[in-house]
Known about the structure:
Two copies of one chain form a homodimer.
Chain A: H1 15-22, H2 26-32, H3 41-54, H4 60-67, E1 72-77, H5 84-98, E2 102-107, H6 114-122, E3 127-131, H7 137-146, E4 150-153, E5 166-170, H8 172-185, E6 191-195, H9 201-216, E7 223-226, H10 231-242, E8 258-261, H11 264-277, E9 287-289, E10 306-308, H12 311-330, E11 343-346, E12 349-351
Parallel strand pairs in A: 1-2, 1-3, 3-4, 4-5, 5-11, 6-7, 6-8, 8-9
Antiparallel strand pairs in A: 10-12
Chain A binds a DNA duplex (16 and 16 nucleotides) through residues 12, 14-16, 24-31, 34, 38-40, 43, 58-68.
Amino acid sequence: MHNTATHNLRKSVTSHDVAELAGVSQSAVSRSFTPGASVAEATRLKVLQAAKRLGYLPNLHARTLITGRTRIVGVVLAHLDNLFYPRFLQLLSEQLQTQGMQVMLFIAEGPGNDDLLEHMLQYRVDAIVLAATSLSSSLGKACLQAGIPVVMFNRVSAQSSDRSFHSVRTDQEEGARQIALHLIAGGHERIAYVAGHLDASTNQERENGFRTTLAEQGKAVFAYGVGKYDAATAQAVVRSWYLDRAGQPRPLSLCPDAIFAADDQMALAIMDTLRDELGLRVPAQVSVAGFDDVPQASASAYGLTTYAQPLGPMVQELVELLMAQIAQRNEPMASNKKNKGHATVVPGQLIVRTSTRQPI
Amino acid sequence: MHNTATHNLRKSVTSHDVAELAGVSQSAVSRSFTPGASVAEATRLKVLQAAKRLGYLPNLHARTLITGRTRIVGVVLAHLDNLFYPRFLQLLSEQLQTQGMQVMLFIAEGPGNDDLLEHMLQYRVDAIVLAATSLSSSLGKACLQAGIPVVMFNRVSAQSSDRSFHSVRTDQEEGARQIALHLIAGGHERIAYVAGHLDASTNQERENGFRTTLAEQGKAVFAYGVGKYDAATAQAVVRSWYLDRAGQPRPLSLCPDAIFAADDQMALAIMDTLRDELGLRVPAQVSVAGFDDVPQASASAYGLTTYAQPLGPMVQELVELLMAQIAQRNEPMASNKKNKGHATVVPGQLIVRTSTRQPI
DNA sequence: TTGAAAGCGCTAACAT
DNA sequence: ATGTTAGCGCTTTCAA
Lengths: 360, 360
């Protein structure tokens, strides 16, 4: 009875309550919480004090209704067990938080992202980040039409027809090329490739860069398998290469002497299989290389040679793109002009460790 | 000019627009999008058709203003580089999505969670999940007062005074106890502990369970260091145990013959240091055990003995608790009674692998 | 600088 | 079953 706060358990306190306590109008309260608004310092103080006393915080949803901006970024993600993506998510979320924006998370394992995207749209997210997944073109269109910026991270649009989305990524072809050159320089003769998801643009570009470079050097892919960015699947592929149907080891001269896996995740699992199941020495008998440079790759138990994606710079580019897009959206005639879709490519770096035989 | 949709680029289409096109009232539109509402099937169809034609989706913020529910759960997270948490996040997010709820992510690395929590409250999240972090008691109070359910995941309140929060966790003391018993049974004489964050309840409970059990068995902790749940820090601790100031190896008889690290993350890094920097064999010369059972722990390169936290069941419990809390919030006189804070403890499991010397 | 008033897009009585 | 009406909590003209 003696405490005002106890009354407000059920209904949350509103700007009217604050106005009443502070003895000002409700608009004065609103202005006191709006950075550049015209309020006398004295009123602002009165208001802020009353607000604190009541535990008042502006209702962002009400604000959204008027301003049209939510300060929410929808992030679509999968493969959270590949450390590359958690690290990405953490960086992105932190950076956005410092800009006063929040991440709303959407997990898209497998297909069926469609009603997922509807949810995003219902929340009127200010922008959408698509990582580790593609977008059915119809829904992509819906976003563009709704004027919501979409930025792809490490993906390009599945539809070669509409490259109207912005994207941030490393040069995957170049990375794969450097891996290929490194393996060739190491004197490897039978070079194998373990693919990720065949329909993922990451895999397509890595595979393409790898094959092309081998071809340029007069070599072909000696063995090929699809690992689907999954550790167990990749291991099964490798087993099928080194063991015959009876489970007996094949002659090594008939097996790959180097394996490039489309991501570190698979490469690490492959090293395990090679060394502990098949009893092979890495890199003495088989070299292994990956892609991404996840933290585990540098653990001394692996020392995986890989191509590093510079997460920090990539996220920074992404955030800048995002903010620019969002800002531009508020300008009058913006949506009709710059709809080309800008593809930012951040350079990566070959990291040579001990899992590959070194060039002499 | 020929297409209605092209007009709606800037201002998003509202239920009024749909109503007009469908030739019904605006409330009819609202009802058509409300699951149990009373609409004639014919009208509903007309409305849905018009809605599709215009690309209409209900604005959830407007709805929120009335219903008081956002269907947003705020999740506070840190240590996303420890795979335990990404896996947790993925599971939680997926489960919530199936219930039509979304995760809003808040990264809390280090302190300063306070304005972070203000953001959550401004978004009027339906509930808050605190994982990998604690909560300043003042803000915790603010949540309770605002009637927002708070559930701790793998944490208990820092303030022993107010255990008013709900929590879901494994029995950390029991886990540590089983690790201790396993190490003792393995015949180890000099058992060391590498702590996580000293102020984290996970560490306190693990350390406590470990020490107590050793004491019961007439043993003490042979060596102790603080790894702060950080790989590099943990490695430094271990180095200091096995090398003297000059960087020369100490006699093994003066060094630990078993190390229990407060989480897998550190345990794996320690194995690397032990084997590759210090040239020791695991477990022949030193046994290593961890806690969590992250995926890497089962990689054959490590084969880490650890205590598994059953993520699936834990998340399921968490979601149930969450939904129950949210539902209860809408009931009239609920907030004054069941404010005890229920602590759900999910049993874990000792996973014995090859990083520890086996009991004879 | 301040207050009154209109309205953002929706749901929920209340009539009909 | 449907339409009308009154807000939800806020920002933003518009006057004063």
